[in-house]
Amino acid sequence: MAAKLNLDKLDLQIIHEMMDNAEISYADLGKKLFVSGGTIHVRIKKLQEAGIVKGTKLNVDLKALGYDVIAFIGIYLEKSSLYDSVAKELQRIPEIVRLNYTTGNYSMFAEIVCKDINQLRFVLHDELQKIKGIERTETFISLEESFSRNVQVFSQ
């Protein structure tokens, strides 16, 4: 494992600002933080090489694109030792957008995004149930997402 990266106040400020607005230019971010755009570029590169910054993502309104169903699936495994093989199979299902190995009632917890109930039914019935190692599942349909946010990595 790589040595722990020493993050200073500037690194945390850069992360904080870019989590809020990843489109900001290095020059504009430098002005905001009172350093050069070159310094921002070097710091971002360092954070990428350390695996802290893993790229940028476009925040899309899925409902506007016709994805009307968001569901969460609690997955019970036959044996916890099957986690890696089941996770590999679940990764092949494009509708599953997030998967966590969990404690508590479920072995795994997945978030799934579908255009409609028919697509959800297909994923649950025709995709998930065919994966060896899954004992059973429980599905929770989201009625509304109240908020979604990043963790606060830097307090001003």
UniProtKB/TrEMBL annotation:
Query: What keywords sit in the KW lines?
Result: DNA-binding, Transcription, Transcription regulation
Q: Which residues form the HTH asnC-type domain?
A: 7-68
Full protein name? Transcriptional regulator AsnC
- Sample GO molecular function, one term: sequence-specific DNA binding
Has UniProt tagged this entry with the keyword DNA-binding? yes
Has UniProt tagged this entry with the keyword Transcription? yes
Q: Which domain of life is it from?
A: Bacteria
**Gene3D superfamilies to which the protein is assigned, alphabetical:** 3.30.70.920, Winged helix-like DNA-binding domain superfamily/Winged helix DNA-binding domain
Q: Which GO terms describe its cellular component?
A: cytosol
One Pfam match, given by its short name, reads: AsnC_trans_reg
An example Gene Ontology biological process: response to amino acid
Q: Which InterPro entries match?
A: AsnC-type_HTH_dom (IPR000485), Dimeric_a/b-barrel (IPR011008), Tscrpt_reg_AsnC-like (IPR019888), Tscrpt_reg_AsnC/Lrp_C (IPR019887), WH-like_DNA-bd_sf (IPR036388), WH_DNA-bd_sf (IPR036390)
